[in-house]
Specification:
Elements: H1 4-7, E1 9-13, H2 17-28, E2 32-37, E3 48-51, H3 53-62, H4 64-73, E4 75-76, E5 85-91, E6 105-108, E7 115-118, H5 119-128, E8 136-138, E9 142-148, E10 151-156, E11 161-164, E12 166-169, H6 177-182, E13 193-204, H7 208-213, E14 221-225, E15 228-234, E16 240-247, E17 258-260, H8 263-269, H9 275-281, E18 287-293, E19 301-302, E20 305-307, H10 310-313, H11 322-338, H12 346-375, H13 386-401, H14 405-420
Parallel strand pairs: 1-2, 1-12, 2-8, 5-14, 12-20
Antiparallel strand pairs: 3-7, 4-7, 5-6, 9-10, 10-11, 13-16, 13-18, 14-15, 15-16, 17-18, 19-20
Helix pairs in contact: 2-5, 2-11, 3-4, 3-11, 4-5, 11-12, 11-14, 12-13, 12-14
Bound molecules: flavin-adenine dinucleotide.
Residues 13-19, 36-39, 43, 46, 49-51, 141-142, 170-172, 175-176, 309-310, 317, 320-324, 326 line the site of flavin-adenine dinucleotide.
GO molecular function, one term: monooxygenase activity
Transmembrane segments: 7-28
Domain FAD-binding: 163-367
Length: 423
Amino acid sequence: MNPRSERLHVGIIGGGIAGLALGIGLNYRHVSFTIYEAAPGLNAIGAGISLGPNTTRAMELIDPALREGYEKIAIKNRSPEKRHNFADFLLAEPGLGAARGFHGAAVGSKDFVRSGAHRKDLLEMMKSLLPGNDCIRFGFKAISVCQVGKKVQVSFEDGQVAEFDAVVGCDGGKGITRQAVLGHQFPDQVQLTYSGRYVYRGLVPPGKAQEILGKYADDSKIFIGQGRYFAAYPLSGGGFNFLGGRQKDEPWTHSHSTQEVSREDMRNDFDGCDPRLLELLEWAKPLRWGLFHHLSTPTYTHGRIVLLGDVAHASTPHQGAGAGQCFEDALILSHLLGQITDDQMIPAAMEVYDSICRPRAQEIVRTSNDTGLLYTMTHPQCADDVTKIVASARGRFQWIWTHDLQADLAKATEDLDRLRKPA
Ligand SMILES: Cc1cc2nc3c(=O)[nH]c(=O)nc-3n(C[C@H](O)[C@H](O)[C@H](O)COP(=O)(O)OP(=O)(O)OC[C@H]3O[C@@H](n4cnc5c(N)ncnc54)[C@H](O)[C@@H]3O)c2cc1C
């Protein structure tokens, strides 16, 4: 075992994609850690998740076994000629755009290969890469995190207290670690904010989507419309996953992030859309999922406590990039913590992590929100001009997919070395 593991023990709060990715990265770099997950087991809400090439590159660099494991469970676009397509854009109006002479436009790139996985498969595969069951503890809900001298204390709901050299909050958008990092300096930035959009989610059984959508059920599609949109993609085994999104300039006044409504209210939200999309909608639950985000996070770190994943930068799902950022964060932070030989360097390593990951992740939160405006034809520069919408989408995705992670790693090492040297 590498001697560094005895010098540093990291507590990870949350065993979702972010916590598991960090655990895999730390394990690969021989840094000792324990993940504490509030739920009794892996918590896989939602059906599928799509991941871009920046994510698969991050996986490879976190631990080649992670990329290998992912490739075994990954679902690609069905038609080989569409492997570089993120989605075909169509219109949600009756005829899907044909009345305007618009027959769809591909948004993708030669740098992009469409892939995704079932969340459950992804989490299970990731858990299988952790070194034994001791490093992940289920049923441990953290209730407070605070730095005491050179240690960080975490108190759990059952009264237990654990102490670490550093704590990484991977506890999702509403995570308590956000309060520990931002509460003193930026109290008004702790809570999630509502994006002005909500979605209904649906799963269509094998064969049914083909019956409803015909040729449009082949691969990923985004149907854009005035104030509403649908995003749909096939799952392995022939099923179909979709979201119906609605933009309304009204505040979210419900105490939970979901709101049950009647089927009629749900249908009314998509009044005037193509009948095929309305038929698809019948497979959704009449449950509105409010889309919330952390549009502004002034810092990801406070001393020896740091934020990673959605607790740092929860995003709307319009670019399918939120989980990708979890992997990028996990890569950079595990790389930095893996280079620490003196625990005094922990706050400096966290500052370096913040300076590399935060600008990009926060820009992704911003552009994702902006992409929601494109999908709902409410973007100030593009409105309902389909040519402009497609051009804008192509540009923003390319920036996400082609990010140079090796350059980030080199900069992380260089910045940490600079801070390590006495002035
Ligand atoms: C509808 C929708 C579709 C999406 N689609 C995509 C997509 O296609 N591609 C993509 O890249 N991203 C997508 N995302 C975003 C992606 O799902 C998230 O970015 C990602 O799952 C965040 O992972 P996380 O581990 O940071 O947070 P979470 O998944 O929220 O995990 C946090 C974990 O911490 C645990 N926890 C919370 N509090 C505590 C506590 N106090 N103590 C201990 N444990 C705690 C929770 O139980 C949970 O297991 C989508 C999001 C939504 C809402």
